Amino acid sequence: MPDSALIVIDVQNDFCPGGALAVEGGDQIVQGINDLMSEFPAVVLTQDWHPEGHSSFATSHPGKDPFSMIDMPYGPQVLWPDHCIQGSEGAEFHEGLDTTRADLIVRKGYNPRIDSYSAFFENDHTTPTGLEGYLRTRGIEKLTMVGLATDYCVNFSAVDAAKLGFTVTVRTDLCRAIDLDGSLKVAMEGMRGAGVVVD
Ligand code: VGL
Ligand code: ZN
User: Is the pTM of this model over 0.85?
Assistant: First the structure.
């Protein structure tokens, strides 16, 4: 399919076992993702990329614990452990990921005041990352998404892509979830409701 792309979400050290925001089994999907790359004419990687003291970090909100919630001007926000700090080892891609195959690497979450789960828009749901324009100008209409975490960055990216009119498939066998308070179930329902094929 010449009009398709593989979008690999946040396969970074901090989301793998031993990392600051480790997702169980996060490293188990790396080889399968590498193998899938050869089936796509375009491969895009995303990288969560926060400045130190980012507003999504619990440490930026005295008295708040990691995984608690806060109200931000753009809506409710989970407070995370410090993770994927720009230039840190935790922000690097997992060493097994074949990054040479990537046509584009999209970084997100660099605005200190807004988190960005989606590869398309920041969490205010309006500030674009530029990925939509890249894909459209390349004539890409079909997206397959894999990576970390199923219920956060994969979910938000898939739903936004579907809303933008792309045909979207999420390969859940090549994703792993954080599953905070039932967030995986909510994410699965949300993706299906948005017309995402969840395989
Ligand atoms: C992610 C929480 C915070 C993700 C990123 O990649 O799913 N989750 N930052
Ligand atoms: Zn993050």
Answer: yes
